[in-house]
Design brief:
By secondary structure, this protein is of the alpha/beta class. The chain has one domain: Rossmann fold (3-Layer(aba) Sandwich). It is built from 9 helices and 10 strands. Strands 6-7-8-3-9-10 form a 6-stranded mixed beta sheet, sandwiched between helices. A 4-stranded antiparallel beta sheet has the order 2-1-4-5, with helices on one face. Helix 3 packs across helix 4. It is globular. It starts with a strand and ends with a helix. It comes from Flavobacterium faecale. It holds the Pfam family ABC_tran. This is ABC transporter. InterPro entries: AAA+_ATPase (IPR003593), ABC_transporter-like_ATP-bd (IPR003439), P-loop_NTPase (IPR027417).
């Protein structure tokens, strides 16, 4: 059975003056896939992601996200994807319920839908007792889970997660990945950046960017076999040494 392409990127390039941050990258992502987008700081992965979510215009090349062209339909792209930024994206000075209502409105949900989604989300996260508390009062792990759930309020086909588990403890990280798996099994595509190489093992496929170029793209199993190593961390290190 042919897999449905949900993201199609061809020769995508981003220049800042004389500096080329992303150098003509090409790849596809499939529906329901957990796709890891890896690279060291400065490799170009954040710049590439900003183009894919419609907040930075490509210098050259094309990117089709959920059937929409990021260069000409950026506003539509933003409304049809979920996004969780590396810096916590909810409002600390609003309660949990108020945050859900606010973002539900931004995503264009009706009052009835927002009410239903609020009950569903608060129940699923077991936050009934703290739903009227300010988000600022929550532990970081709870904030991250809430932020992920809010990014899915409007049931997007794709959700982009930028370093979603940064700073949280190992148990919370594992719980967060269980949420990711659950969502992927429902058919949502997960596009995730992470600097935790053990998390790369959880992805269906990973790409590794080095200096603005995708140097490797395959399943973790195939990459470990190709580079004759036991972990994705070793793949990353070996690749970096080969480039040097």
């Amino acid at each position: 059975m042919k897999q449905e392409k949900i993201i199609q990127v061809e020769n995508l390039t981003k220049k800042f003056g004389d500096f080329t941050a992303v150098k003509g990258i090409t790849f596809d992502v499939y529906k329901g896939e957990i796709f890891g987008f890896l690279g060291a700081n400065g490799a170009g992965k954040t710049t590439a992601m900003k183009m894919l979510i419609g907040i930075s215009k490509p210098t050259a090349g094309t990117a089709i996200v959920a059937g929409l062209d990021v260069a000409t339909q950026a506003d539509l792209v933003k409304r049809n994807i979920g996004y969780m930024s590396q810096k916590f994206s909810l409002y600390d000075d609003l309660t949990i319920k108020e945050n859900i209502t606010f973002f539900g409105g931004i995503y264009g949900l009706s009052r009835k839908q927002i009410k239903e989604k609020t009950i569903q989300l608060v129940t699923e996260l077991q936050m009934q007792n703290v739903a009227d508390n300010l988000v600022a009062s929550l532990p970081l792990g709870w904030k991250q889970k809430l932020s992920f759930s809010v990014a899915l309020l409007h049931e997007p086909k794709i959700v982009f997660l930028d370093e979603p588990t940064g700073g949280v403890d190992p148990i919370t990280r594992r719980q967060f990945w269980e949420m990711i798996y659950t969502q992927a099994h429902k058919g949502t595509t997960i596009f995730v950046t992470t600097h935790y190489m053990d998390e790369a093992e959880y992805c269906d496929r990973v790409s590794i960017m080095v200096d603005g170029v995708i140097e490797a793209l395959d399943s973790p199993k195939n990459l470990k076999q190709k580079y004759k190593v036991d972990s994705m961390n070793d793949v990353f290190l070996k690749l970096a040494r080969n480039i040097e």
